[in-house]
Amino acid sequence: MRKGVPAMWPGQSSPLGATWDGRGVNFAIFSAHATKVELCLFDSPRAQREYACLELTEHTDQVWHGYVPGLKPGQLYGFRVHGPYAPEQGHRFNANKVLLDPYAKAIGRTVTWDDSMFGYRIGDPKADLSLDDRDNAAHCPLAMVIDPRFRWGRDRHPKRPWHQTVIYEMHVKGFSALSPWVPKEARGTYAGLASAGSIRHLKSLGVTAVELMPVHHFVDDRFLTEQGLANYWGYSTLAYLAPETRFQSSQSAQDGVNEFKRMVKTLHRHGLEVILDVVYNHTCEGNHLGPTLSLKGIDNASYYRLVNGNQRYYMDYTGCGNTLNMLSPRVLQLIMDSLRYWVLEMHVDGFRFDLASALARELHAVDKLGSFFDIIHQDPVLSQIKLIAEPWDLGEGGYQVGNFPVLWTEWNGKYRDCVRKFWKGDGHTASEFATRICGSSDLYEHNGRRPYASINFVTCHDGFGLHDLVSYNNKHNEANGQNNEDGDSHNNSWNCGHEGPTGDANIRALRERQKRNFLTTLMVSQGVAMIRSGDELSHTQRGNNNAYCQDNELSWLDWRLREDEEAFLKFTRKIIRLWKTQPVLQRRNFFQGRPIRGEEVRDVHWLTPAGVEMTDDDWNRWYIKCLGMRLEGHMVDEVDEKGRPIVGDTLLVLFNSHHAAIPFRLPDHGPDEFWEPLLDTAQKPIHKRLHANELYSLQGRSMALLRLKHSWSWVWKSWWPWSASPMEEGDRETDEIKTSVAVAARTRLAEG
Q1: 606-648, pLDDT tens digit by residue?
Q2: Count of C-beta atoms within a 10 Å radius of residue 451
Q3: Which of 346, 390, 584, 681: CA 20 to 30 A from 717?
Q4: Catalytic residue chosen out of the listed positions 101, 390, 432, 680
Q5: 274 neighbors 264 (Cβ within 8 angstroms)
Q6: Which one, of 302, 299, 337, lies nearest residue 14 by Cα?
Q7: Is 551 labeled as catalytic in the residue annotation?
């Protein structure tokens, strides 16, 4: 880059950020309360100061802007913003600090911690009321001007329907950091995720979407770096339009942007959608004692929610020190511009919003019809993608499961808690358990949403993984350096009789069975299944349920599998394949439990171990831990994309969270029909025909899946009606289910 003092032309107030047009770069930054803004140009990441400081003299609609001819992609820059330093009034301007552009599309240099990165003088008795006049130019993060051009070719969003989606929640680095199937130079990067070995694993599992933990540029909090730790999870965002640099395999920030795009393009080519976990509720700048890196120094009073009557302090609905001010149109614009950028320029397919309730806080209470949702609903781009809410925050009234509007799906925390309690053997769970695995209609049906509004999960990045869920009663977070006081102490976990690793064969077998129970329950539930990355590999964090700061082998997936771990991986693949073959597990509508065309068969039928329908008294018994669910395969309320009725297998799912085996009497079925076992979490399925009133030996803490099949003798009779005995006219068969089966049988025979 040239080091002379460049010219500054007026430029344009839109778009915000740095925009290269082939001849120069336009810079635009919003600040409602600034008195002066300067553009700082740096010639390298190692520069101790800017080589040019150019005043943005143009000021249009609270946007400061200017155009620098001759600048090219690769230019590093920041801003100095002048104004009052008056924390009691909400203002924290300090022109001694070079600030990161909120619209930075690439990060050319990350922050290095130093006392000069704070707007106040560390250690001063007046704390943040004091002013630090040291220059931070040698330590501040810097944005880089990018060339947005990229050859997308025929890349298209897969647009997989929600009811056919299986989500795989993962960490970009942790997934491939130790993978032997990924080239060493690409491990832990965007390129590593897009490598042939990674794609092969994802496709063999059968998942349809990856949900990436935060990839917006984030910082390692100072208190973590001083302990030798890092912000591994990434929920400490600094730049909402820039991909995180630590996940790129190349040195150049420009190459990192293109590497992310190539990753998305590759995943799309293999039919996998890309969903980003995004953190628009707070930033990494913390509370009144936090650093001044970007928004705090650009216009603190506009960007953050401040305490009424004492604007020195921040409203904190997130537990991270601050909350973005959703009352500000410019904050809404920043979020919307960020979202549209990742869809239109980076081609991602959806977003999971961290602590989404904080985004709905128009006033103090959560307002589900807040401005943010109104804008999303009318946006022609964002209203067409996948939207997932984490429906809670830490403020009063912040637990909003079931209260988000249409177009939104939600992480269903009630599903997670209930399923864990049921398989742990808690009482008073059967009734809610049935509701949760049927799509949680009590939460989502009232406002017109479908079962797929429920993102079902048993585990996620936050809390125990699946193997630890069945191996620990208590958290073991000592490695985090917080005296084991961090992380949730209420996990609804059960160690199966021993805390942590054990050589006891019986306990190990029970743990494997419990893992199969959880996973099978997840895949037979109505809604959208989300699997935590590493669960299929039996990954353990040794009881740490809050490994947010463990960027090491505790968090990275270990691909060296023992025999039992390999067996569980095979089981995971099997149950997802089975789910894909069963239309009744992929319903778009809620069960109604109503009779079908006057017959006794219902779309869902709940059974006691005696093979009879559950009564109200049964549902209210606290000790009920064994029940059956019959799902009718002939779904009169479900049609395909061409309006044709969807007909699949009728399934019988048996659950037993009791410690002892229970003989389950199989329910009635039609003539020439029988039950065929498909899966049993305690034993290999028996290969025999089972008929009504036979007893199925359902082992303790296990579940089984069976399907209803027709004998070939009946199919032949349906195909060759003249070979059957004559029937009276009034007795002629009009059963649509048998007709559809006969048609299917004839088709199979014709196809050989």
Answers
A1: 999 999 999 999 999 999 999 999 999 988 788 888 888 889 9
A2: 24
A3: 584
A4: 390
A5: yes
A6: 337
A7: no
